[in-house]
Design goal:
By secondary structure, this protein is α/β, with parallel strands linked by helices. It has a single domain (about 5-240), classed as 3-Layer(aba) Sandwich (Rossmann fold), CATH 3.40.50.1820. It contains nine helices and eight strands. The protein has helices spanning about 30-35, 50-60, 75-85, 105-115, 125-130, 130-140, 165-175, 185-190, 220-240, and strands at about 5-10, 20, 20-25, 40, 70-75, 95-100, 150-155, 190-195. A six-stranded parallel sheet has the order 4-1-5-6-7-8, sandwiched between helices. Helix 2 crosses helix 3 (about 75-85). It is globular, with a radius of gyration of 17 Å.
């Protein structure tokens, strides 16, 4: 009998699991469990470098048997790639699906590091997400044979981005093109690009910060996204040889 497929959900740089009524991946873990998956959500160290977060992930998954399917939002996708390539993850990871992960870095991180007055430059994670840092990371972190790499990008027009992140979206638009206010479509593409979604960076995990009572924007259903990912994983699990 085939064991339940295991999905590991990975949070981004500031991946607080829950705050008051707010929950990262809002509703998606339970939905995936109802689909028959075992769901794990490690708490990666807040704001730490990729090397530290990747090592933490490796320790967390050390005694978890494969096969594993990683689904990662934002920086979590970079942490996952380090784990897979450098820390033995390729031995039991079947797939990595990233949701708006900055695989080629972000001009926002570069600007933060260039300003002596930016508080962001004191957060270790930010230094790892500049385009130059990600160029070095990508050169040293090849995709591993046998692991399926998939990505979703996301974008909203500036007028549909929450007002408090719109300045970031404007900077990204000028430098990198279409974006979700934090990561550009160009940077988010890695491996098989499944789709570019009409969502901002936070809608991907079920957070809605659209506060304009005078204007509505097209809604985004993050649960449908995770359902689609779950259906794909079920399909892949069905291809596995009997007894695995």
């Amino acid at each position: 009998m085939m064991a339940k497929p295991t999905i590991v959900l990975l949070r981004g740089m500031f991946g607080v699991a829950r705050f008051l009524w707010w929950e990262y991946f809002h509703g998606a873990p339970k939905m995936l469990q109802d689909m028959g998956f075992t769901v794990l959500i490690p708490a990666l160290p807040w704001g730490e470098p990729v090397a530290v977060r990747g090592a933490f992930l490796a320790g967390y998954l050390k005694d978890i048997p494969g096969p594993l399917h990683l689904v990662a939002h934002s920086m979590g996708g970079i942490d996952a790639r380090r784990y897979i390539t450098h820390l033995g993850g390729h031995e039991k990871v079947v797939s990595l699906t990233t949701l708006s992960s900055p695989h080629r870095g972000s001009i926002l991180a570069a600007q933060a590091m260039a300003s002596p007055f930016s508080p962001w430059r004191h957060i270790h994670s930010v230094a790892d997400l500049t385009p130059a840092a990600m160029d070095r990371f990508n050169a040293a972190t090849p995709d591993m044979p046998g692991v399926i790499y998939r990505s979703y990008s996301a974008a909203r027009p500036l007028c549909d981005q929450p007002w408090w992140v719109r300045p970031y979206g404007r900077q990204l638009t000028a430098a990198e093109g279409a974006n979700d206010s934090q990561v550009s479509v160009t940077s988010a593409v890695w491996g098989e690009h499944v789709a570019s979604l009409s969502a901002d960076h936070y809608e991907l995990i079920g957070s809605h910060f659209w506060l304009n009572p005078f204007r509505r924007r097209p809604p985004f259903d993050h649960l449908q996204l995770f359902r689609d990912i779950g259906l794909w994983i079920q399909q892949e699990a069905g291809k596995a040889p009997t007894g695995t």
